[in-house]
Structures are given as structure tokens and as C-alpha cells.
Amino acid sequence: MKTKLMNKDRRFAIIIGINDYSINPLHFCVNDADEIGKILEEKCAFDAGDIHKITSNATHSIKDITGHLGMKARKDTTA
Questions:
Q1: Which helix (H) or strand (E) is 16 found in, with range?
Q2: Which pLDDT tens digit goes with each residue over 28-68?
Q3: Cross-strand partners of 16
Q4: Is residue 70 within 8 Å of residue 52, measured between CB atoms?
Q5: Cβ-count burial of 49 within 10 angstroms (0-12 exposed, 13-18 middle, 19+ buried)?
Q6: How far apart are CA 42 and CA 63, in angstroms?
Q7: What DSSP state is assigned to residue 17?
Q8: What is the reported pLDDT for 48?
Q9: Residue 24, by phi and psi: left (phi above 0), alpha (psi -120 to 50) or beta?
Q10: Which of 20, 54, 62, 64 has the fewest CB within 10 Å, making it most exposed?
Q11: How sure is the predictor about 9, in pLDDT bands with cuts at 50, 70 and 90?
Q12: Alpha-carbon distance 66 to 59, whole Å?
């Protein structure tokens, strides 16, 4: 069965994948977040610049997107 691709309407996504909890840390949330981002680009017609990830693991952390999504939306509508 062929997957129907979504249209190219503008949309934004925030994906959260947190591994590094002090009690019972998780192991695959960051990987899952990365894969969801790929699916949104490939199958759902999201622009990579409109996908914002909040991830955290023992080696790399991207936790602060405060204001980034709003700034991106305002910048693009005024251009």
C-alpha cells in the first residue's frame, strides 16, 4: 500500500526526547525524537527548519528553545 504524503501547508513541530533523568534514566527517547523528525520531513512535508527538538542525554543536550519557535514564525510572516 502506498503512503499518501501530506500537502505542503506550513506547520511547526516541537519534539521532546529526554533520556537523562536522575532516577531511572531512559535510553531511547532521543533516538525516537530524531526518528520522528525524519518522518515528519520525509512523509509529512515538514520543512526541517520548522521542526524544533528538545533533547537531553548524557553527552548532548538541547533544552532551550524558548522564543525560537515564535521568532521563526514572526520572521517568516514579515519577510
A1: strand 13-18
A2: 999 999 999 999 999 998 999 999 888 886 666 665 555 55
A3: 54
A4: no
A5: exposed
A6: 25
A7: E
A8: 92
A9: left
A10: 64
A11: confident
A12: 21
